[in-house]
Amino acid sequence: MPPRDANWIDGLRGVASLTVVVGHLCTSFAPWLHSPAPDAKTAPHIMQLPFLRLCVGGRSAVALFFLITGYVNAIGPIGRARAGNTDAAFTGIARSALARSGRLVLPTMIATLFSWFLANTNAYHMTKHVDSTWIRQGWHRQEPTMWMALKTLFRAQIETWTVGWDDYDGTQWTLHLFLEGSMLVYMTMLATILVTPKARMLIFGFLYIYFWQAGEGLAVAALKGLNIMVGMFVAELHNHYKDKATSLLPTPIPVLLILTGMFCAGFPQDGFNNTGWSSVMAKIMRGMTAKDTDIRRYWDSIGASLILIGIFFSRNARRVLTSPIFNFLGRVSFPVYLLHNSLIKSVLTWMIYLPSAMNPPRNEKGEQMDLQRGNWMHMTIAIAVFFYILYRMAALWVQHVDPLCGKVVNTFIKWAVGEPTPVLNGHGGPSTIGNGTVEKASPA
């Protein structure tokens, strides 16, 4: 795997990616964890309690991804603007806007192609018959003809970025929002490059208020806009305080921010009236948001934002996130996100349900019932093997697929902006396309 410097934001991205996977596993096999208690009269399970219930915190992890998008994409332009190098800032925004599209779209297309291949080789066959509702909803049939298979692939590739849904991988619904979020960063930076840092932070505040009141219904606008703005705000803090940020606040304050954020991020997805603490949180948020809005998005965003700000000011938290294990999790976070659903519906499903499929359960009328999962030991071993395969494949993806996508994107950008692009002529020597300048071929 290519070397990459340890970075706390990378480690946080890795944690968010892992949380999404764990959350989907819990949704598959223990969906009751989404409620804070079975009902209003029954004591909660230990894993339903605040903090511990973050094992199903995939929604707050998505909010973290948007925060990271705002932070990472704004930190460079803000630094150049503060240095007075506005020309470099504008140039960087223009090139980043081109590159960001390719670096999101190309890997996603490959992941969709992978899921399409699995579906049309009948690897998802068992998914239709399992006792897990979430896995069963991800089933996709094997198309009867190659023409039909190619048509569904084309539609999935397009609709991922137009309507936000991929028939072959429903977990890709967030990717068009990440692309929109990146463009929101670039547009905001383009409009604020020439203003003072104080004015820019004031603008971030006004935009935060705008997105707060714009989050009606499913509150997708709030999920995207609120977290993007907080991420950009933290990028401004980074460029203002530099290395002094981790020594500004007494140690207990960042810890308190992180813990408060974890509590808020644990707001339940379902049944929040089953416990007092979640009922109070729901009542508070309903008084601060539009009628019938998805208040869960707001608590996810507030919790994730407090976690990010707490980590930003905490030396110890940053040290943990730059450790080798978190550095690895960060490097493979995107392919893990792209591949996990396909592997859950194929590899994990086959490992867990194959014994039942070999002797399918039937009811009194002789009709086949849903396949049943194995015992807890069987499940534990299967999930451990699944994680090994997932992260091994993600590491191989980073080693082989990411460099290829990067070369394609960089070549396109050079062509688009009119820079020389080296190619080999018929004799194996260097040639060019573009402005005619000759570049030597890379030794690689």
Overall geometric form: globular
Total domain modules: 1
* Secondary-structure element series: HHHHHHHHHHHHHHHEE
Number of beta-strand segments: 2
Quaternary status of these chains?
A: single chain
Helix content: 55-70%
Number of helices: 15
- Spans of at least 5 consecutive residues whose pLDDT stays below 50 are 426-444
Q: Give me the secondary-structure category.
A: mainly alpha
Mean pLDDT: 90
Backbone CA Rg: 24 Å
As laid out across the biggest beta sheet, the strand order is 1-2
In this structure, how is the largest beta sheet organized?
2 strands, antiparallel
Give the DSSP E fraction (strand runs of 2 or more residues). under 5%
State the end-to-end distance: 16 Å
Transmembrane segments: 12-31, 51-72, 104-124, 173-195, 207-235, 255-277, 298-314, 334-355, 376-398
Keywords: Membrane, Transmembrane, Transmembrane helix
Organism: Delitschia confertaspora ATCC 74209
Pfam family, one: Acyl_transf_3
